[in-house]
## 1
Amino acid sequence: MSGIGLNPLADDIIKLADRYSPGVGVPAEASSGSSTESSTTASSSSPSNADGKGRQHDAGLADSHASDDRTPDDEEAQAQDEMTSCNAATGSSDISSHNSFATTGAGGGPGQWPLQDEVSGALDVLYYGPIYVGTPSQAFTVDFDTGSADLWLPANCHNCRGRQFEAGRSSTYRSTSQDVSITYVGHFHLLRSNPERSLTCFPSLSTLFFFLRTTLT
Amino acid sequence: MFSVPFHPFFFSSNDSDLKGTGRVSGTIVRDVVSTAGLTVAGQAFGSVNNKSDEFNKQPNDGLIGMAFGTIAQSRQATFFENLIKERKLAAPLFSVHLSRHEERGSSVRVFVTYRRARPPPCPRCFFERVGSK
């Protein structure tokens, strides 16, 4: 329910990140030790864990083995914890501490991709950022979508607003004869009882980092 | 397998349910694609000459899918997968920071080098391992 994945198995993500990038230490501060294994792993990759940040959000840190032992009550408690954290995410201290990080990221250095939030009323509708295509490069903005896996840009599109890719201006462009049609279907359920737990809150906090590992290495 | 935190279309809302649809069509082409200082030569993408009206309500020009390529309707490797294959990342990970109700401040990050300053304290972090079906 956290938005991007369904199986929270954090410890080997931390291990993996530590193996690839020692010291970068995927923000292992998130661990408060919901399971022994992940706690150990997290502390080893994050010596400065005890930074007095108070109660840490540990949802999602259960590893695959520990999860077998979890009882429904545990899971409910965790879910409840997520809810609490979700609402707590509006707390100013959390947001301010992360805005400094995000502001740095918004500068857009290597590996940092700033996104703009399209806000409509109470909804954060989508997040989009710059992308560059062709030689010389043409600039566009693309919706960053974790729920689909196709990349597309408008070109020769009569009913499209916005910028369009001009293949004729790119020396590295290659066409194919393959047609493509991409359809999007989505369905969300909002918790009616609490407007604070809106769609955007459900995937979780404003202050979350999602670390995704792919099966490709 | 993915629930979708932010999806590429506007919603029709009846209080508790949100539904969205959208469609684009065109041909598959290849060209150099870069963002965040990372480049993939020969990235496949849809050169779309038709898109449904939902998309014209949006501020963005196109869309980048960050899910596994196994669900790509174009059956092409994703930009992120190509970065991994071409060994342009220090780890096959990306992170997402989403601000709420703030135009600026959100970002996606990948690890590109082995030597990077530690991120600042992250009191509320989620770790998700995702698998491909």
## 2
Amino acid sequence: MPLLAERFTAQAAPPRDNREKLLERAMSRHRYSGDSLIEVLHTAQELYGFLTPELLTKIARKLRLPPSRVLGVTTFYHFFSLAPKGEHSFIVCTGTACYVAGAQGLLETLERRCHCKSGGTSPDGKATIAAARCIGSCGLAPAVIYDGNIMARVKPDQLNAELDRIGVQ
Amino acid sequence: MTVEELEQKQADEQERQRGLENRIYCCTAAGCVSSGADRLKQALTDEVKAQGLDGKVEVCGTGCMGLCSRGPLVRSSKDDALYGNIEPAEAAALVRGAAEDQEKLAPFRIDTTAPFFAKQEKIVLANSGFVDPEKLPDYIAAGGYGALARAITEMSPQEVLEEIKASGLRGRGGAGYPTGLKWELVARQPAQPKYVVCNADEGDPGAFMDRSVLEGDPHRVLEGMAIAGYATGAQQGYIYVRGEYGLAILRLQAAIKQAEREKLLGNRVLETGFQFRVDIRIGAGAFVCGEETALIASIEGKRGQPRQRPPYPPESGLWGNPTLINNVETFGNVPAIITKGSAWFSAIGTPASKGTKVFALAGKINNTGLIEVPMGTTLRTILFDIGGGVPEGGEFKAAQTGGPSGGCIPAEFLDTPVDYESLAKIGSIMGSGGLIVMDDTSCLVDVARFFMEFCADESCGKCIPCRAGTVQMHDILHRITRGDCHEKDLKILEELAKLLREASLCGLGQTAPNPVMSTLRFFREEYEAHIRDHKCPAGHCSFDGKDGGGR
């Protein structure tokens, strides 16, 4: 089901010229109000996949906010990412139910295979791994969101198989 | 739409549904979808076409049917049966529903007289599994928006307030503040504009009740908010939803659009002078935003940091205006109270805790899923009758309620009735409704460490007791799980807990020590075994000095 987690994953970028217009439209819908900063950042990240300093500066100017406030808000919330994401994404739910069911082991498997810590991207850019606080699928613990789809009752071997399939080094 | 038109629409849709030979409801909540509900629904839809039953048999998606562990779930209106673990291959038989098909389907049939169903009482989840959350007529056919119509045409705002007060409804977000009193505080404020905010930032790990309500019955929450708007004199509502809940956001957006189109929300609600709009605000992944003043800051586009209270939001909330903040489940109760009356509602539950509570059952339990029980039901009934007990081979050790602000309840308190006061008495809290069962393979020291790590990570950093205290407490717990610890550390742990409780700015820091304190109270010997003997009674922690916490 892509709906639940599509906001987590780097999306296929729409044509370049369009994105600027879409972002502008989002800001104008909120009448360039500073209060809409979080909404605008959501839109920007959906369009661009991650938030660059240029993008943030531009948003600050348009919403007439100090850049410090924009950066402060961006870094406060886990959702916003300042770095590009890998081709594939694995989000391990580390909510209580998943933790009790062994989510930590899944995360360790991913970290070992992708040579990066949770929140990072493998050096070959193939996979981004992250831990989510609770995706609300506790009945399926431990759960992993793999490219937007929920995998239920995951075993480390399943992750290894997927990593092999996408060719993570 | 006028009130008469609403009634007409309800009658029409009920008539139409009665005219169908069969209506097949597919649970399309997250649990069932990941067990293949989408494929099943598609197969059923195709099968209806193939058998030429268009217009006679209807397939629709619904919200959570509760028994997530048996997903995908399907309900058929013809024989009023519930089927679980069902494969697309059975679609033909389900659609036909003839006598020989019944036989074939028998192994998939779920006994709906089993305690899992019989011991529940559904108010907030009444429609979940029975209406299509994407179709407004479905909700209207089930009596939807009737409470709003009744409130704004037959009752004064004061009467609505009195009704909610008389019902004894208390906030379902965890703290249990009387809802009627909160509404009255906002209603009394002379300042305008006022706001109604629905807190759907369900951040507790292990809780998925609000999400299920929003995904399964979004109009119910909107209706509850509109009634609150009428009673308090607010014309604008906001729903603050977690960014992670993509489907809930889509369903809410669709529901708001439908309701506005039919004049059930907007400028002239039901063609009367009452106006109420609802906007969605999407969270961005900060647990602390569940705290009301932090939530307000976040809606205002700022860092979600709490502020000193008082003034409380009913006096000074969003942009300094009077603001009513209630949880999803609280609003979900409101339409039923207005429709059926406060006397009906207050007859359910215990003297101090009225009504029902939704719980999300998870962890080492057979029937994982979503349940709703009258307040005062014992934990034993919830976990063993409804939940089906711990899976074979395990032994019940503790139940965790209230997430990172709650506590662990050991076996000797299984007969505690679940209500606000009884849970507080044994060092836990009602919380928002996450209920996680742990068996003898779960190390409670590590669970306490897990929650402390969570709080340290989610602390917003504004006040020092929480920012530094959670890190210090986590450090000690981490060392205990690695066997690198002294007896005196337990004392420091307790001192820090006291400090956090008394000196933190908001609920996050004040309640962060709860999991530690409750496990220390009931399972102190586990801590001591870790410290003295370098032994983990659950066999979970390893003490070879390797980095990596409880593993």
